[in-house]
Amino acid sequence: MTEFLGKIVDFMNSTNVPQQFREVDARGLFTNSWFLVPFIAFICYNLYKQAVNTLVMTGLGFGLWLFSGSSYMEGMVVNGILQLNKVLPVAGVFIGAIAIAIYFLFMRSD
Fold first, then answer.
1. Is the pLDDT reported for residue 110 higher than 60?
2. CA separation for the pair 110, 98 (Å, rounded)
3. Which of 12, 50, 60, 78 has the highest CB neighbour count under 10 A?
């Protein structure tokens, strides 16, 4: 099993996926019409179909993506040392996100 996962990690590192995630330009993404037009169409379609679960999960994904790239997250590790006073709020945000996802995926019915 570790051999299989090692190959996946090696592949991701060879394609520079972690670096690409770190260098995402959110402002450029949301001003690019090639992304914005299909994204707005996706949102409008889900509003038309009244797919609240899909809209909430999309918003949750974008919210966590923005939070993970915020300056608060950048300050979690200073000089190679984890700042323990910042761990609890981050854990709270992600536990809250998991709770929202569980509620909308399993407990709430359309």
1. no
2. 19
3. 60
